[in-house]
Amino acid sequence: MAVHCDGQDTAPYVGALCRHRRYNYTCVVRGWDAECLAPSQWQIQMGVHHLAKGPKQPFFLVSASDGSERWGFLCVSAVF
Question: Sheet harboring 17-20: ordered strands across?
C-alpha cells in the first residue's frame, strides 16, 4: 500500500488522512503494528515478502472512503 499522508514525509499516524497513490482511494489511519502480524497465508496472497523489508516494517489499518477496512504497508516515500 503506497500512501501519502497530509503532504508530509513523515510516518503516518493514527488519525492521519491519506490517499493510496496506486489505487487512488482516501483513507484514515486507525491503527498499526510495528511489523506484519497477519497470518502467513494473507502475507503470501498480498505479496508481503516482495516488499523491500518484507514483514519487518510497520503495517497500518485504515478505513477507506468506500467504507472498507484494510491492512497494508504505508510507504512514506510514495505518497500524495
Answer: 3-5, 17-20, 26-33, 59-64, 69-72
Partners of residue 27 on adjacent β-strands: 18, 64
Which tens digits make up the pLDDT trace of 38-74?
899 989 998 889 988 888 888 888 898 899 988 876 6
CB-CB neighbours of 43 under 10 Å: 17
Residue 4's pLDDT is: 47
> CB–CB of 80/4 below 8 Å?
yes
Quick one: pLDDT at residue 73? 67
Q: Which of 75, 67, 77, 56 is nearest to 30 (CA)?
A: 67
Q: How far is CA 2 from the centre of its chain?
A: 7
Question: What's the rounded Cα separation, in Å, for the pair 4 and 21?
Answer: 7
Q: What value does the CA radius of gyration of the chain take, rounded to a whole number of Å?
A: 12
